[in-house]
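User: My advisor, Dr. K., asked me to get a structural model of this assembly before our group meeting. I'm new to this, so sorry if the format is off. These are the inputs:
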Amino acid sequence: MMRSAQRPPSATVNEIVYNISDLRVEFGGRRVLDIGALSIPRGRIIAVVGPNGAGKTTLLQVLSFLRLPTAGHLEFGGQPVPCTERQRAALRRKVTLVTQSPLLFRRSVGANIAYGLRAHGLPRAGRIDAALSAVGLTGFGPRPAWRLSGGETQRVAIARALAIDPAVYLFDEPTSSVDREHVGSIERVIAQLGAAGKTVVLTTHNLDQAYRLTDSVLSLVGGGLTSFPLINLLRGTAETLAGTNYFCCEGLRIEIANGAAPSAIVVDPEGIVISREPLQSSARNCFAGKIIKVESDRGAIVLTVNCGRALVARITRHSYTELNLNVGTPVYVTFTSTAIHSLDDAAASASA
Amino acid sequence: MMFLSDALVSAGHLLWTLDPRVVAAAAVSLKVALVSTVLAAALGVPVGFAVAARDFRGRRALQVTLNTLTALPTVVVGLLAYALLSRRGLLGVWGLLYTQSAMVFGETILVTPLLAALTMGVISGADPRVEQTALTLGASRLAAAFTVLAEMRWGVLVAVAAGFGRLISELGVALMVGGNIRDATRTMTTAIALETSKGDFAFGFALGLILLTLALGVNLGVAIFAPRR
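Assistant: The format is fine. Below is the predicted structure of the whole assembly, which you can bring to the meeting.
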């Protein structure tokens, strides 16, 4: 499931913190999370990316034991997550979640950090100041928490999590409202947590951040993990021509759903149709190109087609032999706008 | 209209000279209202909090009941308290009728549902992130619930102040189970009712001014001490 680690594995890397199988979460009969299998090893930093409404926040709520799955199996530290509230309360102390728009209690910044320390039975001495200085807010302890800006609030929430020093940190969009100059300090904090052997799961819309900061990137689309994490990631700009919405990048003009204005899109490799002739279909995204790579993957064929920009398509072995494809074969790449997933920072902040 | 201005002047004189009848009625009113408010808060706030914060069987019914009880006519509560405390009543053996304890008993019954309903409203309006944040920081469910209450403390305080306001100006219960006995169970409101019926408007106005000042004081206190959003 995971991409291979980019950093040397630590001694504890083989330990599994979370083990999920056939986990489902439903709200009012609507399935918002459906994960077949996922293991999260100890001491790793993992990013979860995906469009809005993909189930990222729900996944973090499940991992922080705030929400029970509707069905399926969830293990923490090799033990099934218990049903009784008392037992789950003990598990919650090993994990902390910093939400996307965190809430600070209506008291001083220092008292906010002291809250977690008290709940964990930890001494205050030095921990409050250390946590605040880690997020660049030295001396903020006595300030009233309700007077802070959005970015400062998010950093205090991260400091509050650092102070209690749990084994697992869950961050929902940790830098979404932090101003540009402080994003670096938050990213450093997260990197240090990884170096200290903590397990970190974070969600982000910032793909650069995801790949730069983490060992593994999971992509969640429509509540499920996709097997191709962000292959066919295209960066560009949206524009409207004659009433139709297009996404322009690297020489390609791709028709996308109306109203969307993403800064990046992902084209699902399974949603791409490969043909020898241009397809007569409602799909307007049809590009001519040449196959530059052919690979076999778990019973399917993965083709890389250069059509100005390399696009990866996943087709069945049957169509591969039927179309008589090989490296160098000229083909047409066709996909509808439903194969496109928008990933954009603007939409993320608008929904916050 | 001359009698009105004369009455106001006389009222000022009564207040200025701290007329013993005025002071006694004000003292009884304050004492009964304060003790009843404390008791009603001790009963009503936890009930309102539990109804708002916890899901249990019959919760909806309890919510509706509490909201209905806030509109209880005071004379009905007075009647109920009288029936319970009179010699033939269930609690008649206590011999409390026409004492300040009887008034506290009745007033507490009157205002407990109000405080429960107001607290329920305040806690229901709390940001759901408060409880979630407390849980993610390692608090137990109970500790998280108390954090919600602590976060909403100003709203609860305003509710309690509203309860006090209702009690200090209450007439029906005070009259029916207190009996309007001078220096013992005569409150400002029962005194106003009595003296007005005797034609002594000055006395009524003097007590009315104290009542208004008290109401103003409570509201000013809440406005000054409660932080601005």
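One thing worth pointing out at the meeting: Residues 233-351 of chain A form a domain with the OB fold (Dihydrolipoamide Acetyltransferase, E2P) fold (CATH 2.40.50.100).

User: Perfect, thanks a lot.
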